[in-house]
Amino acid sequence: MKKVISIIIASLTSALLLASAVYAAYPSSRTELPEGSRLLDDKFIGEKNGWDGSEATGFAAAFDGRADTYYDPTSMGGEGCYCGVKLAEAAVLTKVCILPRKGQAARFEGASIQGSNDGKKWTTLWQSKSPGTEDKWETITQFKNNRGYRYYRYFNSENHGDIAELELYGYSVSGAYAAAGESVAVGEITVFLDANGGRVAAATVKTSFGGAYPALPEPDEREGYVFEGWYSHPDGGIRISEGSAVTKPENHTLYARWVNADGASGDASGDVVGGNTAVSPVPPVICITIALCAPAIAAIVIISRRQKKRQ
User: Fold this and answer.
1) Around Cβ 230, how many Cβ atoms within 10 Å?
2) Phi and psi at residue 280, in whole multiples of 5°?
3) Which helix (H) or strand (E) holds 207?
4) Helix (H, G, I), strand (E, B), or coil: what is residue 287?
5) In this predicted model, what pLDDT tens digit does every residue of 202-243 receive, in sequence order?
6) Partners of 151 in beta bridges
7) Which of 130, 178, 180, 128 is nearest to 154 (CA)?
8) Containing H/E element for 97?
9) Which residues of the chain have pLDDT under 70?
10) Could you tell me if 51 and 72 are in contact, meaning their C-beta atoms sit under 8 angstroms apart?
11) Among 193, 188, 277, which Cα is nearest to 232's?
12) Residue-level pLDDT at 276
């Protein structure tokens, strides 16, 4: 019996280790995917060998889904000292998630995200003005000069800049918005405002792709409801406010989100008004562990029952 239990314990341990290995897959931040966006992972590029001269600390370590590995540049701000992605077609950033190297969060200060259309001339879209936080993902959703690029990179000219993980998300861009060389200046676009059952005095606002949304008018009061904000989609999406980055290159619509005045999110019939309820998914590591451990647990139960019968 002791031997059987030892085998079962060993099986459970192996199952847990396997589940952890499976779950440590890129991307690992579990961030919410912005509406209409995709993970920009066409081809990873950067410094092949890191500080210690090995590939283990090169650019690939920033895209392996593991918090215990890291990209360690060979110098601060040196030419070629970066990790990033090369895309098949230009894309506009909507979100970037960065996990600083464990124990080196202070080196995150000065970190920047840059874009290019030739891999040589780089434009800064965002830069950190403060150190990172230990064991915490840094999430960036506001960018400047965000007009669509084929190359994106993480780069730091002010600190050594080690990072554990880098995830870039965005919209693919084509036609007139895909530049051959530097980014193309984009003209004015119209944003339509759908009050979603309410009324708004100004039905449109003007802005430009790659710029920022101007002040957005608040709809007139709607009896029984409270205005929550403007969103990119009538059911879900991301909240848009003054200063939010314009990441759609064409005319588009924003939708009002309403909640019941009593705090419930919906109308009298139970229908959601411009919103949905998010349910936290069961982490994949838990599902995998349960699936792998089920046979061992069943064996324990069977053996226990047999032992009781013999007694």
Assistant:
1) 29
2) -70, 125
3) strand 204-208
4) helix
5) 899 999 876 789 999 999 989 899 999 999 888 877 889 998
6) 86, 116
7) 128
8) strand 83-100
9) 1-24, 35, 174-187, 210, 263-311
10) yes
11) 193
12) 31
